[in-house]
Specification:
mainly alpha
């Protein structure tokens, strides 16, 4: 049985939106602005940075659509897709190592 690979929460747009509104609240409440340079979710972090900018400039309107377009992240993979791509790259590297080892055994035999 195959389960659904991507849920709505895997959407880069949704996670960007969360970061955007969290940042606007942090600015509005006077809370410390968090450092997003090493955040595990690139989409959330990009939304947070854009939300801080908009809130500080008074451009926050409660909608992250303009910030999403401005950030130009429409082609960013979801973290799930990114993990799948990394797993596939690791598998390919292991296959290459195994085939290389098999070739060396054949040559020496």
């Amino acid at each position: 049985m195959q389960r659904k690979l991507l849920s709505d929460l895997d959407s880069p747009r949704i996670r960007f939106n969360w970061g955007y509104h969290d940042a606007a609240m942090d600015v509005r409440e006077g809370w410390k602005i968090r450092d997003m340079s090493a955040h595990f979710d690139r989409n959330y972090a990009a939304g947070y940075v854009e939300g801080v900018k908009d809130a500080r400039e008074g451009a926050y309107e409660g909608n992250s659509e303009r910030a999403w377009i401005r950030a130009d992240l429409g082609d960013v993979q979801s973290e799930f897709e990114h993990r799948l791509a990394l797993q596939e790259a690791k598998r390919a590297a292991r296959r290459k190592i195994r085939t290389g080892a098999a070739r060396r055994k054949v040559r020496t035999a």
